[in-house]
């Protein structure tokens, strides 16, 4: 699969004088992509969300190729690695891209899908200039230092502190479940700058170079033997005020932008096993057909139900993502999309595993890594329960959970005490 | 209830204490890395636990099948990385039933469905060849037992593992499920008693897994209740949230269900015919395992996905055991065929009477 991404740097790309991307037809987009990418075929197999893979090179090569024409993040400004595409044109490009081999961009997804859009909304010009292009080109990997041992689902309860010292900040505390920290050059970090404010206030967002003195990453081994998430210990790390994202005390608002983009799946384009256009069957069904002995009615029923669910979840995710791009701020539809996408992934994994019969217990069986990864999908990026809560409160208008700590100064709240 | 339909409380107490002392998170992790846990096995074997239910005259430890299954339940509960079922109620049982010597060490058995190991009778010997798949702990076993149907007879071949070529393979739980190649190994011909055949072995395998699974689901449920009571988010233990309580209820229900069916099957098996109860127990345990692992993982959040927290010792074992000695489809089909072949009028008597109604 690696050769697919070896494209010479001299290959055609969208330089000055090319027609505006918003004027391109579907055929023209396809023709341009044909110059830099390989078509996807029935044999294309890609990992999803990095499960079982530590490959950074495939994604780097793909992004290095596509950034020349701004193809991966078309809506971003041209100077930052995009091509100022309209929302509709972006959707069209996304659809055409599905016909090509786009590797699993899991290592790059925080930068591409979450930090990038948040910087476009909340970052200074200098920050955008410094950080966006390297994200789009795959040069820099970002991670998200949000969760802490006592602040998981209750994200606003973060305790990692940032204290101002002249035009610097001194950071101390611990993060956990920091996906991609082992690979990252940069982190977006939610810190408490004023402990006397209620928990959602008094938070500020920073960008941290992972090489900064006082930042230590300790990978955690997962059940599926990946070590993709880590604990991050921060002890007296000194940070320039230029690396603050958004205003002091506005960290929660920035975090919400980041998370809404995560749910909307902004960065998830690429990888996985969707149904590429023009293929008779998605490769997951082709694989199941090889594994299954007898195609019983029950088995076909399960495959068909999954296929339908998969298609629905893909279009829902696409709609949420388009909506996010057109309004600039993703709404609760992203929560629905995440629930469906996760459900689909789990369904495919479990069906592959059960289709393998007794063989499916062995570590070299098809669907093995997916089965061990599946439970994490409804936990990472906001649990199913958190997503349903968002839908309940913001879509259905149900009464909110009682919040005992709403107006209580954070340092007087009952965090972790009962 | 008669005396022999009760578990000896001393068995429960002793086995539970033994595993509590020697089988902790670190030792299970270490066993996974090494592919064996000699300290746990030796302590376990020293008590004679592996050979419960096999007559003392045949080299066993005596005691009832019910007691043996209770030990297996505790093996599952503690996620003990040892070939307890293989050495005892499966391999040991096959050896004893064919009048063969029980080894002092570990016995394993080529599982039902471990295709392609074949045997042919040649005078007073059996010639074994072929390749057996998913053989539990073969790499550390002293004897590898293969039940074979040859010319209307059930032959129990007991092969010295040193005469086999063993390729290591691992299941989801990190336990050995090796590939064993037999290259025309000769062993003395030994026939099983008439009540022991491949079908009986298949059911006994399922019974062993149902007992292990009942224990593992119970422990998983307990871990989850305890973790969610400790874990505070939004100013209260997460166990106070209804959405989390729903997961806890699934875990607890499935633990109760799996234990109930395993115990019913064990009791009936101790009395005699128990095909219906065993088939139902394995199917119910399989389904309970699928639901309970989902619920318990979800309630644990990210913590449950780490190697550092013990939940995965249980969930990965459950996913593996679920596939051994009959997956959901196999037992659903068996039960469905039995019910259908007897007709609608006999359905209720079958449900209430169980295996006794089959004869």
Q: How is this structure best summarized?
A:
The complex is a heterodimer of chains A (418) and B (359). Chain A has 418 residues and is of the alpha+beta class.
Fold topology:
The complex is a heterodimer of chains A (418) and B (359).
Chain A: H1 26-36, H2 57-66, H3 87-97, H4 109-122, H5 125-137, E1 142-145, E2 161-165, E3 168-179, E4 186-192, E5 203-209, E6 215-220, E7 229-240, E8 244-245, H6 251-263, H7 283-291, H8 297-327, H9 333-355, H10 368-377, H11 384-395
Parallel strand pairs in A: 1-4
Antiparallel strand pairs in A: 2-3, 3-7, 4-5, 5-8, 6-7
Chain B: H1 9-22, H2 25-34, H3 38-46, H4 65-77, H5 84-97, E1 107-109, E2 117-122, E3 125-136, E4 143-150, E5 153-160, E6 165-167, E7 177-188, H6 198-230, E8 232-233, E9 236-237, H7 242-271, H8 275-300, H9 311-321, H10 328-342, H11 347-353
Parallel strand pairs in B: 1-4
Antiparallel strand pairs in B: 2-3, 3-7, 4-5, 6-7, 8-9
Helix pairs in contact in B: 1-3, 1-4, 4-5, 4-6, 5-6, 6-7, 6-8, 6-9, 7-8, 8-9, 8-10
What does this structure look like?
The complex is a heterodimer of chains A (418) and B (359). Chain A has 418 residues and is α+β, with helices and mostly antiparallel strands. In chain A, 38% of the residues lie in helices and 13% in strands. In chain A, strands 1-4-5-8 form a four-stranded mixed β-sheet. A four-stranded antiparallel β-sheet of chain A has the order 2-3-7-6, with no helix packed on it. In chain A, a hairpin with an 8-residue loop joins strand 6 and strand 7. In chain A, helix 9 packs antiparallel against helix 10. By secondary structure, chain B is α+β, with helices and mostly antiparallel strands. Chain B has three domains: 82 residues, Butyryl-Coa Dehydrogenase, subunit A, domain 1 (Orthogonal Bundle), CATH 1.10.540.10; 90 residues, Butyryl-CoA Dehydrogenase, subunit A, domain 2 (Beta Barrel), CATH 2.40.110; 161 residues, Butyryl-CoA Dehydrogenase, subunit A, domain 3 (Up-down Bundle). Chain B contains eleven helices and nine strands. In chain B, the strands form three sheets. Chain B has a four-stranded antiparallel β-sheet with strand order 2-3-7-6, with no helix packed on it. Chain B has a three-stranded mixed β-sheet with strand order 1-4-5, covered by helices on one side. The longest helix of chain B has 33 residues. Chain B is globular and about 75 Å long. Chains A and B meet through helix 9, helix 10 and helix 11 of A and strand 8, strand 9, helix 8 and helix 9 of B.
């Amino acid at each position: 699969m690696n050769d697919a991404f070896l494209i010479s740097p001299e290959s055609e790309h969208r330089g000055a004088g090319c027609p505006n991307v918003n004027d391109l037809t579907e055929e023209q987009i396809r023709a341009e992509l044909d110059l830099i990418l390989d078509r996807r075929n029935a044999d294309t197999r890609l990992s999803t969300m990095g499960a079982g893979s530590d490959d950074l090179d495939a994604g780097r090569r793909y992004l290095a190729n596509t950034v020349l024409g701004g193809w991966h993040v078309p809506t971003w400004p041209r100077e930052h690695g995009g091509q100022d595409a309209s929302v509709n044109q972006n959707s069209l490009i996304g659809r055409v891209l599905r016909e090509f081999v786009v590797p699993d961009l899991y290592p790059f997804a925080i930068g591409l899908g979450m930090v990038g859009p948040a910087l476009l909304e909340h970052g200074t010009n200098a920050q955008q200039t410094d950080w966006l292009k390297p994200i789009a080109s795959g040069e820099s990997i970002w991670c998200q230092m949000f969760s802490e041992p006592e602040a998981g689902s209750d994200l606003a309860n973060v305790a990692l502190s940032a204290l101002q010292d002249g035009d610097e900040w001194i950071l101390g505390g611990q993060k956990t479940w920091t996906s991609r920290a082992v690979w990252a050059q940069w982190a977006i970090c939610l810190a408490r700058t004023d402990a006397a404010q209620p928990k959602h206030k008094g938070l500020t967002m920073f960008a941290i170079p992972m090489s900064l003195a006082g930042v230590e990453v300790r990978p955690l081994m997962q059940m599926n033997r990946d070590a993709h998430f880590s604990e991050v210990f921060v002890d007296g790390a000194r940070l320039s005020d230029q690396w603050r994202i958004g205003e002091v005390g506005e960290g929660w608002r920035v975090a919400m932008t980041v998370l809404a983009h995560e749910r909307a799946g902004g960065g998830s384009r690429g990888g996985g096993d969707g149904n590429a256009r023009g293929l008779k069957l998605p490769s997951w069904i082709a694989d199941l057909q090889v594994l299954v002995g007898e195609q019983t009615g029950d088995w076909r029923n399960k495959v068909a139900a999954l296929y339908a669910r998969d298609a629905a979840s893909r279009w829902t995710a696409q709609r949420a993502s388009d909506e996010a791009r057109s309004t600039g701020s993703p709404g609760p539809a992203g929560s629905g999309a995440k629930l469906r996408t996760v459900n689909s992934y789990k369904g495919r994994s479990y069906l592959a595993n059960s289709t393998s019969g007794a063989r499916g217990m062995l570590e070299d069986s098809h669907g093995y890594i997916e089965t061990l990864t599946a439970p994490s999908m409804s936990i990472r990026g906001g649990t199913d329960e958190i997503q349903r809560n968002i839908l309940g409160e913001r879509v259905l208008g149900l009464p909110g959970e009682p919040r005992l700590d709403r107006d209580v100064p954070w340092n007087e709240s009952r965090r972790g005490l009962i | 209830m008669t005396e022999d339909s009760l578990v000896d409380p001393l068995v429960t107490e002793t086995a539970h204490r033994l595993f509590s002392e020697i089988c902790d998170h670190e030792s299970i992790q270490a066993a996974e890395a090494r592919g064996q846990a000699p300290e746990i096995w030796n302590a376990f074997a020293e008590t004679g636990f592996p050979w419960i239910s096999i007559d003392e005259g045949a080299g066993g430890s005596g005691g009832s099948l019910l007691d043996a299954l209770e030990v297996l339940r505790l093996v599952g509960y503690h996620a003990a990385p040892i070939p307890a079922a293989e050495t005892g109620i499966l391999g040991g049982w096959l050896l004893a039933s064919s009048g063969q010597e029980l080894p002092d060490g570990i016995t394993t058995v080529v599982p039902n469905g471990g295709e392609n190991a074949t045997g042919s009778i040649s005078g007073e010997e059996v010639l074994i060849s072929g390749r057996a798949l998913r053989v539990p702990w073969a790499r550390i076993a002293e004897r590898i037992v293969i039940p074979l149907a040859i010319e209307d007879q059930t032959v129990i071949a007991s092969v010295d593992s040193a005469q086999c070529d063993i390729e290591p393979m691992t299941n989801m739980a990190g336990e050995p499920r090796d590939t064993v190649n037999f290259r025309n190994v000769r062993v003395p011909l030994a026939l099983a008693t008439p009540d022991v055949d491949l079908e009986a072995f298949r059911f006994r395998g399922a019974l062993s897994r149902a007992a292990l699974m009942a224990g593992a689901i119970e422990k998983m449920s307990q871990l989850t209740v305890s973790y969610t009571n400790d874990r505070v988010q939004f100013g209260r233990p997460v166990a106070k949230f209804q959405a989390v309580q729903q997961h806890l209820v699934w875990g607890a229900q499935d633990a109760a269900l799996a234990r109930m069916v395993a115990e019913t099957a064990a009791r009936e098996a101790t009395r005699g015919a128990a095909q219906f109860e065993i088939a139902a127990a394995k199917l119910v345990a399989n389904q309970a395992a699928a639901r309970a692992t989902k619920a318990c993982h979800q309630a644990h959040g990210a913590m449950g996905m780490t190697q550092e927290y013990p939940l995965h010792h249980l969930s990965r074992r459950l996913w593996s055991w679920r596939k051994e000695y009959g997956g959901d489809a196999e037992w659903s089909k068996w039960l469905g065929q039995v019910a259908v072949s007897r007709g609608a009028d006999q359905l209720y008597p079958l449900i209430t009477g169980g295996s006794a109604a089959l004869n």
